[in-house]
Amino acid sequence: MKHYALVGMLTVVFLTGCASTRQEQNAPQSAAASASSRQSVPVPATSAKKLVLNMSGPKNVTEAKDWSSFKEEWRATFADHAKEAGIAFSMQDGEARPTGEPGTLLTVYVNDYRMVGIGARVFFGVMTGNAFIDSKANFIDLKTGKSFGAQNYNTTSSAWHGVFGKMTPQQVDAVASGVFSELKLAR
């Protein structure tokens, strides 16, 4: 009988819905602004055909042991979105700099994050804790270095929603979807 109760409890935990939220705001708006009040970044059509991603953050973030894995997650996810959208994509390391060619330089400053992978969530469930991303993305003219505008991309999830709680890969995908929707509006 105890076995059935345990199976029932595990089933409830595994079948609970997703609790990830994505909050995006224009940089000038307050942190309390909702995604529905978000205004798009005016990226010109000539700059929407190429995206160069440059990531940075405070020292404690960029020196974290999983920073390389976190950046790779962004690179792979953004490359997939770019391929699907027909947009040229590359990653830029070091100090963000315009290259003199048409396109958008996306500088992402990651204030903080907590990386939780799918395997960890499946094997350890609520014990893995919450995944989140707190970042600000600046859309910059790749040719001139002039800013088009900025967006805050912040995501969070709850481990209490079991294996269906959004992990880092889904959260990076949500950010990429937001960025590519800005580029799509320009085209």
Can you describe what's shown?
The chain is of the alpha/beta class. The protein has one domain (2-186): 3-Layer(aba) Sandwich (Rossmann fold). It has five helices and six strands; from the N terminus they run H-E-E-H-H-E-E-H-E-E-H. The chain has helices at residues 2-15, 59-62, 67-85, 118-124, 168-186; strands spanning 21-26, 50-56, 88-91, 104-114, 132-141, 147-156. Strands 1-6-5-4-2-3 form a six-stranded mixed beta sheet, covered by helices on one side. A hairpin with a 5-residue loop joins strand 5 and strand 6 (147-156). The radius of gyration is 18 Å and the shape is globular. The model is unreliable at 2-37, 120-127 and 160-166 (pLDDT under 50).
Radius of gyration: 18 Å
By CATH reckoning, the class would read: Alpha Beta
Order of helices and strands: HEEHHEEHEEH
Percent helix among the residues?
25-40%
Strands of the biggest beta sheet: in what spatial order? 1-6-5-4-2-3
The mean pLDDT is 77
Shape-level CATH architecture: 3-Layer(aba) Sandwich
Q: What is the overall silhouette?
A: globular
Summing up helix and strand content along with how strands pair, one would put the structural category as: alpha/beta
Number of domains: 1
As residue ranges, the low-confidence spans are 2-37, 120-127, 160-166
CATH topology: Rossmann fold
Q: Could you tell me how far the N terminus lies from the C terminus, measured between alpha carbons in angstroms?
A: 61 Å
Question: Biggest sheet, in brief?
Answer: 6 strands, mixed
Number of strands: 6
